[in-house]
Specification:
By secondary structure, the chain is of the alpha+beta class. It has a single domain, classed as 2-Layer Sandwich (Alpha-Beta Plaits). Helix content is 26%, strand content 42%. It contains two helices and five strands. The chain has a five-stranded mixed β-sheet with strand order 4-1-3-2-5, with helices on one face. A hairpin with a 5-residue loop joins strand 2 and strand 3. Helix 1 runs antiparallel to helix 2. It starts with a strand and ends with a strand. The relative contact order is 0.35.
Length: 91
C-alpha cells in the first residue's frame, strides 16, 4: 500500500553527506519525495512509496551511514502526491 510521510530527522545529520545518502537509499527502495537541511539542525524529508519499502528505507538511513548519527526520526503520515517521479535533494 502506497503511503507518504513527512519526516524530521534528529542527530548528527548535517555536514556529513546525509542528504545525498538519503537520496541514494530512496532510489534503492523505489521511493519518491525530497530531503533538505533545516535551519534548526534537523533534516526534513517527505517520502512516498510502499509501506514495506519505506520501513526498510527508514532502517537504512538510521543505521547504514557511518558518518551520520540518527538519534530519532519523527514521522507523520500525510496525503500522497502521486505526481512525483523521483527523490530530490532540495537546497
Amino acid at each position: 500500500m502506497v503511503q507518504r510521510y513527512y519526516l524530521n530527522i534528529e542527530g548528527k545529520v548535517q555536514g556529513v553527506g546525509f542528504r545525498f545518502f538519503t537520496q541514494q537509499q530512496a532510489g534503492e527502495y523505489d521511493l519518491v519525495g525530497w530531503v533538505r537541511n533545516n535551519s534548526n539542525g534537523l533534516v526534513e524529508a517527505e517520502v512516498e512509496g510502499d509501506d514495506q519499502q519505506i520501513d526498510m528505507f527508514l532502517e537504512a538511513i538510521k543505521t547504514k551511514n557511518r558518518f551520520a548519527k540518527v538519534n530519532q526520526i519523527h514521522q507523520k503520515q500525510i496525503d500522497e502526491l502521486k505526481s512525483e517521479k523521483s527523490f530530490k535533494v532540495i537546497h
